Amino acid sequence: MAEVTLHGVHKSYGELSVIKGVDLHVRDHEFMVFVGPSGCGKSTLLRMIAGLEEITDGELRIGGQVVNDLPPAQRGIAMVFQSYALYPHMTVYENMAFGLQLAKYPRDEIDRRVRNAGRILQIEHLLDRKPKALSGGQRQRVAIGRAIVREPKVFLFDEPLSNLDAALRIATRVEIANLHRDLKATLIYVTHDQVEAMTLADRIVVLNGGVIEQVGAPLELYHHPRNLFVAGFIGSPRMNFVEATVSGTGEAGVTVVLREVGTEITVPCAPGGVRPGDPVTFGIRPEHLAEDGTGAARIGGEVQVVERLGSETFLYVRMANGELLVVKAAGASRARPGDRISVGVLADDGFVFDGDGLALPAGPGRAPRELGTTRHEEMRGRPGPLLS
Amino acid sequence: MSSLHSVPTTAAAAPTRSRGGARRKGLRRGVWPVLVLFLPPAFLLFTIFVVLPIGEAAWYSLYDWSGYGAPEVFVGLRNYELLFRNPVFLTALKNNLLIIAVSALVQLPLALWLATLVSHRIPGVVAFRLVFFLPYVLADVAAGLIWRFVYDGDYGLLPALASLVGMTAPYVLADRDLAIYAVLAVVVWKYFGFHMMLFIAGLQAIDREIYEAAEIDGASRLQRFRRITLPLLAPTIRLSVFFSVIGSLQLFDMIMPLTAGGPSNSSQTMVTFLYSFGITRMKIGFGSAVGVVLFCICVTFAFFYRRGVMRHD
Amino acid sequence: MTDAAQPLGTPASRRPARRRGPRRDGLLTLYLYGAMILVACIVLVPLLTTALGGFKTLGELRTNPFGLPQEWIWSNYWDILTTERYWRMLGNSLVISSLTAFLTLAAGSMAAFTFAHLRFFGSGALLNYFLLGLMFPAATAVLPLFIRIRDLGLLDTYLGVVLPQVAFGLGMSILLFRNFFRNVPKDLLDAALVDGCGYVRYFWHITLPLSRPILATVGIVSFVNSWNNYILPLILLNTETKYPWPLGMMIYRGEFSTDWHLVLAFVTLTILPTIIVFFAAQKHIVAGLTAGAVKG
User: Fold this and answer.
1) Minimal CA separation from A344 to chain B, in Å
2) How many separate domains does chain B show?
3) How many CB atoms lie within 10 A of CB C29?
4) pTM recorded for the entire structure
């Protein structure tokens, strides 16, 4: 079993605390993505799992065994670095073979593994080249190859796509997903790009300021963000937040009035601890606002900027409180800057966050959402054709 | 999955919660062997042949000692007193200052001027740069000996050159007033190329677009040099001055073939003084006092120059 | 070396159809070449007349100081080349300089490696301890050094000259190595640790192969410094058969003080290896010596 379990893990540099108590269970064969803004501690956490950073306090288990005190090479992990970290003076073959040579594997076993990895990654023709003679995408493959040949229990990826250009990033993203399916290994992947996280992960860990904000499947985070931070971080463009005041609670949910805007909206969620008069934050994603005004409520404003992407259009609407509301409209939208429009709010998809920034739980009036199965569940039990 | 578990795993009974030292040791395995293996050679060499001798110099300087047996005749600070009363040492000190002044006022502008010349992209500049740098790679002794010939009263080039224009040149190295200037000329001859290379490197680090922007702003060639090149080159200039000072304080090799400090000790520097009055006469105590003074000057200068002038470089 | 900077504006060749006419550029070129040729003459005339003087008789040296020899006296050179002392002297220098360079590289790179990659108690203080060596010349400690070498029984041995030379070069070499090692991407060390590579093997398998430029720089600086060193061998060696060339040259000059033509031939021959190597490897030497200074 290659589960990774973190229990009360802390990391501090002297007085500065960067990881403030993380409890996490990464399941066998799971594709787990750590995501968060820069400086949130996601890379540090990964490096602690790798053994490159000491664990100040807490316990780390890989495959059931406590590995706090084991050096990286003995933890059964392999890592793909953001900069690829290929040894510049070694050929592709030597790069991949280096770790195995150090572990004193027999020569023919090393050769078999390296050639196999080369075949999987389609870099067989590059084995004699030095990293300098490779393109960015090819280097990326070699870095992954170097991890594969170790046949680790856990793969660790540290922002592996951030040095690739946009087109290559998408192509490689697909390949990594395929690779994970074929290797059937546990994979922990760090990125700051929430799109990458959403598309790749079985589950996502959202980190902020050294603590876990939420763990869940991608759509779970999208539909049920636990707090303001996760709500703002997952989804692109980000969710609109408007200061509001609770005007009433009832069977249908919580009714709020947007401050300085006046619009009254009823969101189907349980009131929890909020009472009428409490200040809250109302959150609504751009895709849940309608340019044509359909919906349970309306927010008026003036169009400031129109971003036309062809397939869709984003309108930046100045509300009465002076702030901008981002509205996702159809690609054929005719809105122009200066237009006064009335934006419809699909209140069922809105969120109310209490004074502490926590989302109010979905109430009885809220329709259950279709979450779908995760990729992890789909692939379970299916044999991988490669590397078996 | 279990077939993939071939990466070696050990220490199954690792302690659940070890702290501090034990943990550090476990993770950073191999740190101590590296320290024990890698540091001692340099540390021992440096301590035995650089640091201890400096300390011993301070100690010996309090004795009157010929170097045999143990130093026994304790004289306190008398060696220093003798030193600062010694007119030759004062001449040496003055000469060192003179060398520093000439380095800063003649050699540095010359090097900077040449650096701007050979930074033009015209055919042959690379060859000229090499030629200008050539004296720097020659040993000081060789340069000194060559110029001894140039200055020679009977066979030298300088008298021959003078007679070509109908003058008689004095034998400059035998002239008490001129000898040190003759030495200075050789110092500049040998070292300007090095400083030129520093400036070339400094000039290359300046973004050419800055010049283009200045040209668009209407700055003339001279204005561009004064308002852009010089300020941006300031760190290099400070570095160049630093090398000039440290280099001139230890000037020795070149003086030996040229004048050996003469005539009548008029061209001594601190190190030639140390050699002629300390080493050749085996006055270890007195010579050590010279070394200590030189050391103090060097370290004080280096410390304050780096902390003060080169603070931001 | 070819990518020259342009401190005074864009060069003539890249400036088509501008207010400055060709006459103006012509004047500039004339000024540039005139100045450069003048300085080159000041540099080269002493060197060339020295080499030519070695082909002349003593008498001709006086009557014809600048011109080519009327009669080329090859024997001046030939007699030196066929003596053992010339070759022995160069051989001594080669042994001392090679040993100095090798030990400086080894001790300096290893110490710098610990400063670049390991944080241990007192590492900062220890680094500053070594950097102290950058601040003063060997001459300051030359008397106690003499006593020490004598007491160690190393007086008049190659090693007695080599070890102090290495020690005094360590400050610079540790600084250069450390700065270089720190610029090697940190991920490389991490990747190697994940690969199961310890620090010693990382140093040997990764750091050193990647450090060829800095090894060359430090090697060149320490070799040239040792090759040209005069004061330490002067004080620490007494047997003429062990003298390196700067000392040997001074001895020769002392013996033949009035025979300038022989001295000139001898000087020419002794600096010839330096000049040949300089022009053969000029790129590395210029870069090494200036980089060594700037980065230090």
Assistant:
1) 52
2) 1
3) 14
4) 0.82
